[in-house]
Amino acid sequence: MTRQIDDDALQPPAGPAGEVPPMSEVLTVAQEFTTVGVERQDLGGVRVRVLTDEDTVLHPVETRSETVEVTRHPVGREVDRMPQPRTEGDVTIIPVVEERAVLVTRLFVTEEIHIRRIRSTRTVEVPVTLRHQRAVVERLDASGLSDPAAADPTAVPLSTSNP
Fold first, then answer.
1. Is residue 112 within 8 Å of 76, Cβ to Cβ?
2. Is 99:89 a contact under the CB 8 Å cutoff?
3. What pTM does this model have?
4. 101 half-sphere exposure, CB direction, 13 A CA radius
5. Are 110 and 96 in contact (CB under 8 A)?
6. For the chain, which ranges sit under pLDDT 70?
7. DSSP characters for 102-147?
8. Do 72 and 113 touch, CB atoms closer than 8 A?
9. Distance CA 134, CA 131 (A)
10. Which residues contact 40 (CB under 8 A, 6 or more apart)?
């Protein structure tokens, strides 16, 4: 701030005959002037680093499996023609035939093979790698070096979408 005071204002004005009145009758007028300016100083900067961390966690996953159970059932029944495989519920039946020599050749179902599907579901834990990011903010001094006193001890996590 700069003050400017008019030197003539400090002197009492001269009267009509050039005489100076006593100080008690003199009113001193002063005026102040102010100038405001902005000075840019390079105090350093900020460095932001984004780090990606990976964690392996166990994630439950439902798995399905299917096994088959094969059983043989003797039949011994005579048939006129070759029977086709058929399905009864969850069992597929495949007929097995043979020709037997009789006065005439005839087909006999000697056995049936029953195949039953058995389905099961279970939950298992599968290792999954999850990634998340965090931002580390560091203050830099005027020379561009990291200022350890101003380091952000808590990184700011960034939101990410999961894998």
1. no
2. no
3. 0.35
4. 0
5. yes
6. 1-26, 102, 147-163
7. SSSEEEEEEEEEEEEEEEEEEEEEEEEEEEEEEEEEEEE-TTS-B-
8. yes
9. 10
10. none
